[in-house]
Amino acid sequence: MADVTKGHVILSPSSGSGDTQLTLKAVSANVGNREIVKSIFTVKAAGVSPDKTITANLAAAPEFITLEQASTGVTVPATAGKVTITGISNSPKLEFEVGAGDIVEEDLGDKQFTADGSITATNGVAITGDPGADHKYEFSIEINYVLNDTVGTRTQVFTIQGSSESVKQTLTITQNAGAARLEVSPAEITVPQDGSAVNVQVTTNTTFTVS
Length: 211
Prior knowledge:
By secondary structure, the protein is mostly beta strands.
């Protein structure tokens, strides 16, 4: 028999004759609504007035944040560029920050990100419409990173927090090592007879030897 769906709740069957048990369940597991969501079903029978209603209260889920790359971290090349960090949450606001390090230098204070597909939200500010009250939502933020001009890999921790310290996730950003470089200037120089010193400048991002 057919079902009827209201909000995030499915009721079945949608019709019957005589004493009948109705079954209600969430449209899918883990809807993620942070607040109780009410769905009202109306039951009508021939010759009976008024109609009867059933109010289904979908239980609230705890506030959460999941970063999709948290388990593996994010690896970026040595060249400067952008990386997109994505996740799922039901938080009323999201606050992003980076720890000590030299990969991400931009100020994330008023950085904008996308939530629930089309909402443009701002770091640390309540998300318009509070979609997480009704359902979990996807989010993404684009982070700029700078050139790694060293010959070693480097790391920096990215943190996202919800409405409290207890709702927090982190991931590690790893940047590949840059290419080694070596320059001398000038490449040819005259050394005086009188014993005075002259200088050649070595410019490098690694160790060197002279032979």
